[in-house]
Amino acid sequence: QVQLVESGGGLVQAGGSLRLSCSASGRIFSINAMGWYRQAPGKQRELVARITSGSSTNYADAVKGRFTISRDNAKNTVYLQMNSLKPEDTAAYYCNAELRTTGWGRLLDYWGQGTQVTVSS
């Protein structure tokens, strides 16, 4: 099986920074894209940032210029550097990986358990 383990969430004041990490392990043949999503109470889960195996990135408009996604392919790890945090960034952040468990398999979505980010005003 495949596991995604996140770390780095916490409580921070507005204007502060946090760095999230997510490592994928288990039966992995290849990883296509990795990304971060977030879900605030009463809201739908939304894409924050995504990075492909070729390092192409895309960001939600709300975080452009403040968040940076990066990836270490050798470690199957994705990072999210979050700067200039705002109270509206408060949410549970989930790691996502699109991957194949075999060379002939289809792309599957896997999710981490989530890590809470709380930004106080």
Write the layout of secondary structure elements.
Blueprint: E1 2-7, E2 10-13, E3 18-26, E4 30-39, E5 46-51, E6 57-59, E7 67-72, E8 77-82, E9 91-100, E10 108-111, E11 115-120
Parallel strand pairs: 2-11
Antiparallel strand pairs: 1-3, 3-8, 4-5, 4-9, 5-6, 7-8, 9-10, 9-11
Structure characterization notes:
This protein has strands spanning 2-7, 10-13, 18-26, 30-39, 46-51, 57-59, 67-72, 77-82, 91-100, 108-111, 115-120. The chain is mostly beta strands. β9 and β10 form a beta hairpin. The relative contact order is 0.32. The mean pLDDT is 96.
Summarize, please:
The chain is 0% helix and 58% strand. The protein has no helices and eleven strands.
What is the gyration radius calculated from CA atoms? 14 Å
Quickly count the helices.
Answer: 0
Give the N-terminus to C-terminus distance in angstroms. 40 Å
The shape, in one word, is elongated
Secondary-structure element sequence?
A: EEEEEEEEEEE
Biggest sheet descriptor: 7 strands, mixed
Q: What oligomeric state is this? A: single chain
Give the helix level as a range of percent. under 10%
Quantity of strands, as a count? 11
User: Which strand-content bin applies to the residues?
Assistant: over 45%
Low-confidence stretches: none
Look at the structure and give the mean pLDDT: 96
Main structural class: mainly beta
